[in-house]
Automatic annotation (TrEMBL):
Organism name: Paenibacillus thalictri
Keywords: Dioxygenase, Oxidoreductase
Keyword hit for Oxidoreductase: yes
Highest taxon of source: Bacteria
Pfam hit, one: Glyoxalase
Name of the featured protein: Ring-cleaving dioxygenase
Length: 314
């Protein structure tokens, strides 16, 4: 049976691009690994944040659109994006977030302690400690490597039809159900990062897309051959995947599952160093070939942004 290793990336909507950079690079200490544009709307950035190399399982991506409406988190969406940090680092993150003006709530789920908070647009995030997963090799601002975010721990999915989403996770995506507690059932994929998915067990009313909400969640395919197998597998199970789309840094297919959540399956290769040196990731606006002749106009229409150390870390 096909089985994904876990989350490849998560993509969300926000408003202000500099505020987005300040939070994910400045506060969370992630690396801006790619600065490009929305291929369907070149007046809008597409920003990618992750570990040093932009490894699958670490990447959160954003479409910052200042005129975006405010979204409403609900069914048919990722409700909470989970980040994982090394064992013993939770107290560092509690102190850091509070010092930088981020309101933090503590909760326990499946015997794990989580710090829950929101980004400036209201996107719901949480941090959990786990031993699993490689340590980060990236440091920035006030975040040392031994406390840094490793990547995704997973996500909380909000489904309008949780029984159908559960069936998909187990029978199509290949995750294993490992428990149920209170409002959530827990599923585990085989990878070390982005592998723990909590799903609501009672239906949730539909949310509304917009700033502060997740657009889609992408799952990993290890190579192009497996990606084609995934497309056939999804179709054979009654879903309607798109054709394979070249997203420059991975190939993608998309389909909407019966609980309303937009799923993508993305290839691990070729990765983010395909068009710029690994040591210079995220420094320049990278454009696909068909937009390169329009670079001057595109760059003029984009709000300038910079990765900067926050005042609280200076």
């Amino acid at each position: 049976m096909n089985a994904t290793a876990g989350i490849h990336h998560i993509t969300a909507f926000v408003r202000d691009p500099q505020r987005n950079v300040d939070f994910y690079a400045g506060v969370l200490g992630l690396r801006l690994v790619k600065k490009t544009i929305n291929f369907d709307a070149p007046e809008v950035y597409h920003l990618y944040f992750g570990d040093k190399g932009g490894s699958p399982g670490t990447i959160i991506t954003f479409f910052p659109w200042p005129e975006s409406r405010k979204g409403r988190i609900g069914g048919g969406q990722v409700g909470v994006t989970t980040y994982v940090v090394p064992t013993g680092a939770l107290s560092f993150w509690r102190e850091r977030l509070e010092r930088l003006g981020v309101q933090v709530n503590e909760t326990v789920r499946f015997s794990e302690t989580y710090l829950q908070f929101a980004d400036p647009d209201g996107l719901q995030l949480e941090i959990v400690e786990r031993e699993q997963g490689p340590m980060s090799e990236w440091t920035f601002g006030g975040v040392p490597a031994d406390k840094a975010v490793k990547g995704f721990g997973g996500a909380i999915l909000l489904s309008t039809a949780p029984d159908k989403t559960a069936h998909l996770l187990e029978r199509v995506m290949g995750l294993q159900k490992v428990g149920q507690e209170g409002a959530y059932a827990r599923y585990r994929a085989a990878g070390e990062l982005g592998n723990i998915i909590d799903l609501n067990v009672t239906p949730v009313q539909y949310g509304a897309g917009g700033a502060g909400t997740v657009h889609h969640i992408a799952w990993r395919a290890k190579d192009y051959e497996e990606h084609e197998q995934w497309r056939n597998h999804v179709a054979q199970n009654g879903f309607h995947p798109t054709q394979v789309i070249d997203r420059q840094y991975f190939n993608a297919i998309y389909f909407r599952e019966e609980g309303g959540i937009l799923f993508e399956i993305a290839t691990d290769p070729p990765g983010f160093a395909r068009d710029e040196p690994a040591e210079q990731l995220g420094e320049k606006i990278m454009l696909p070939d068909w937009y390169e002749p329009h670079r001057e106009v595109i760059e003029k229409n984009l709000i300038p942004i910079e990765v900067r150390v926050l005042e609280g870390d200076q």
